[in-house]
Predict the structure.
Amino acid sequence: MPLKVIVVGAGIGGLSAAVALRQAGHEVEIFEKSAFAAEVGAALMVCPNGTRVLNKLGFSFSNARAIILKRINMMDGQTLGTTAAVDVSRAEETFGAKLWAVHRVDLHKELLRLALEEGGMGQPVKLRLSSEVATAEMDGTIVLKDGSVHTADLIVAADGLKSALQSIVSKEAGPPRATGLSAFRFLLDTKVLKADLKLAATLDRKGSSDVGSLQDTHDPTKVRYIVWYECRDGQTQNFVGIHPTRDVNGDNQEGKLRCDRWSNPPANLLYEHSRSTAAKCWPLFMHAPLPHWYKYRIVLIGDSAHPMLPFNAQGAVSAMEDGGALGYLFQNIEDAKLVPERLELFQRVRADRVARVQILSNVKLGREKQVEEQVRRYAEPRGSSKSGVLLAGAHKHSDTKQACQRTWSSTLLMIMGEFECLI
């Protein structure tokens, strides 16, 4: 008999888990609090460790209109010169899969197809909309806001940062810590960008299949930059800005980058476009690794278990890993009594790896030495120098550009290349 599985939340993590568990032969039902099954937001990078999971699920990057990324360029925001770069054009050879850029809406739509379509592996997933989960019990029972009760052999809590089930599983989650940084994002039609001669020239310098990270070098002591790449078959440009939080009035003002302090005109033009395209803004908070991810029949995944800062593009990707790992571990499991045992194994193979990624994601690329000791606490075996060796190697170079590139490569290898099991 297949297990009955309830997934709470129809975001990227919830859908990844639902598809993987469907393909593992189980009956899966998703409870989503919103009235529509759609994602919102901008684009994201799917790093090779996420790509391997999606490939296993039968995900079509063509359907999602994704772009293969070939190079990550750190650029001086004033001169637009490249200060450091990592060639990822051979990511498939190095890491086992490609590096992609995809719009969240398109990623979500393709995962939803894999979950709901008839004729795929396993039974189609059932989707319940306008079904907000209020609480759950250890025996596999969930209670909705409307008072209705539903039971399953396994409950997967993929309900995000403000999870209704996290406190049931783990009491150890401490309050988030403010980073002093905020982020903003906006999208720009490629045609609009190319119509501006200065921005079109900037695009040419960045490269159409490259990631550009425009650093504000006016004050190197502060984190202030824009990450830029395209999606949707090159028809849309995606921008994410990181900068010190400012105490200002107005819901949509906090995330405005102080591009007036940049001397390069294209940066100012991007700033003006962000003002005219209703940039979404939010403060960034740091979360400590959670010691417990499961309790009897309930397991936390994605942001409900390990919220991450955006510096290594691993938030959504780690949620995909969670989903893929659950699907693998629950293959050929038909006895509901084995659920707690499987979840204990899930935590054992996931928690330390995710903690390393979570901690590395607290700093931008090139500053990994700041968190080396924290990463080492979650090395395998615990306290070993395995993780530290990769980070330390970059600082043996006297040349700053070489050191930065080697640090990037080491971090990318650690994050993208070590997720080999359970896929």
In short: The chain has a mean pLDDT of 84. Residues 135 and 214 are 44 Å apart (CA to CA). Residues 363-423 form one domain.
